[in-house]
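Something for you to look into today, if you have time. Just paste the record in under my message, thanks.
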Amino acid sequence: MQVGQSMVYAKEQPMRSVGRPILLDGIACDFPELKLIGIHVGIPWTDEMIAMAWKHENVFIGSDAHSPKYWPPAFVNYINSYGQDKVLFGTDFPVLGFKRTMDEVLALGLRADPLRKFLRDNALRVYAIK
């Protein structure tokens, strides 16, 4: 699901965001069997996206659309620590190519176990790939 910088404009309504990660809260509660992946890191509400993934067993974060070298420090820390089972690797191909994205991810200095989970294991688990 798209989370982050999405805006809706309507004549009769003030500008409102439809991409706030907090909007996943009700869906995650009502449909606990449904796996929700909030893509695009949740920027500019990354802390809110982290809170939703941490709160709900069925909510995960997709790391696409933003260059890893510009990820908020809280997001990098989340991947490398208590959120290591909740984040899935992604690019924004062709805007962010695979090599560039991988080089920037490796430059983050993630520990070996969280890096393996982020790049491979979490996707295998979330998508039930054997």
Remarks:
- The first helix runs from residue 24 to 30.
- The chain has one domain: 7-126.
- The first strand starts at residue 7 and ends at 8.
- Helices lie at 24-30, 46-55, 73-80, 98-107, 112-126.
